[in-house]
Amino acid sequence: MAKVIPTVDGIPVIPISAPRPPEEVDRKPLETAQDALGSSPPSRLGLRISAAWWRSLQYVGMTMHFLAPPRPPNQSFTKTIPSTISKTKGSFTLQFYTPAGYEQATTRGGTKFPAVVNFHGGGFTLGSATDDARFARFVLEDCNAVFVSVDYRLSPENPFPVAVEDAADALLYVIRFAGDLHIDPFKLAVSGFSAGANLALTAPLCLAEHLKTVRASGLDVPAHCIRATATWYPTTDYTVSRAVKRANSVRPDQTLPDMLTSLFDASYLHPPSLKLAHPWLSPSKATDEELAEGIPERVIFYTCEWDMLLKEGELFAKRLGSAPINKDVRYKMIPGVPHAWDKSPDPTKLPPGAEELYRECCRELREAFEKD
């Protein structure tokens, strides 16, 4: 097998030092962001400068990724919406990709389409809503659904919980304006990759909590149903240190290097007192009741064999499918690939197996939409 270089949204990242031996790793659970980052984390200004550099590399990598045939679709239109859930006020953009027949529906009316609300990867620090356009093509063609990709606000400028709240706000916007958008509010799903896969699990939890507050205040929320979540190689437990996760990997040399994961964690995990067991951060730490109520009925769950996140993903998928939560979990571990292998920056060909798995995932989504 040819050597596979780990990538993050199109950026090749080569580890510059060997991981620590498993016996030398401190396996004590982390409680706060300070436990994860140490007593002298980088300055917020330094993080912004570093993030800007990596974002420029990511832009080049994704540009190369999109050159491989077949070319992905372009978005049909965008909507910039104000934040309503987050205490950090601002706005963010939704990118809409629409299936065949959508334009006719906007003029003639009547037809309502399912919708998949998607969250991109990049450690909550990099990336943009266009990064998953290749996956969008299969949603449009195989599910005949609208693909709504979310440009949630990034860290370090906007650390936790802004990304989660923006993701929940995006869902709330689609629910509230489903009629104007020609979307069936009873046929919704969420999806995400890497950091976005975490949001595909945590945004429904955040939304469920927000809706309780809204309804308690006497306000009306349109009836809706989020039928499925498709989560691709997610982070699910921040109480486990990166060193432990690397030590648990079957290929530590293929995991993301410390220089990049340290940037992601220092950017997103703020302030130092932040509790890492917060369910919007570490969904595996949510209660059974929170997961049973907030997570959609069908969970399409992918992990990567060489990923440092494999073990926590396997454990969480098993928990979601077991009593008392009892979700309909469709789990698959992808053998012989590192984290985010499907975002390879090779302009000559697509990553092996990516399109087949995208199509498989969309079959599961379509089945969830069609289920009575």
From TrEMBL:
Q: Name one Pfam family in it.
A: Abhydrolase_3
Supply the InterPro entries for this chain. Answer: AB_hydrolase_3, AB_hydrolase_fold, GDXG_lipolytic_enzyme
This protein's superkingdom? Eukaryota
**A GO term for molecular function:** hydrolase activity
Q: Which UniProt keywords apply?
A: Hydrolase
Q: Where is the Alpha/beta hydrolase fold-3 domain?
A: 116-341
Q: What is this protein called?
A: Alpha/beta-hydrolase
Q: Which organism is it from?
A: Canariomyces notabilis
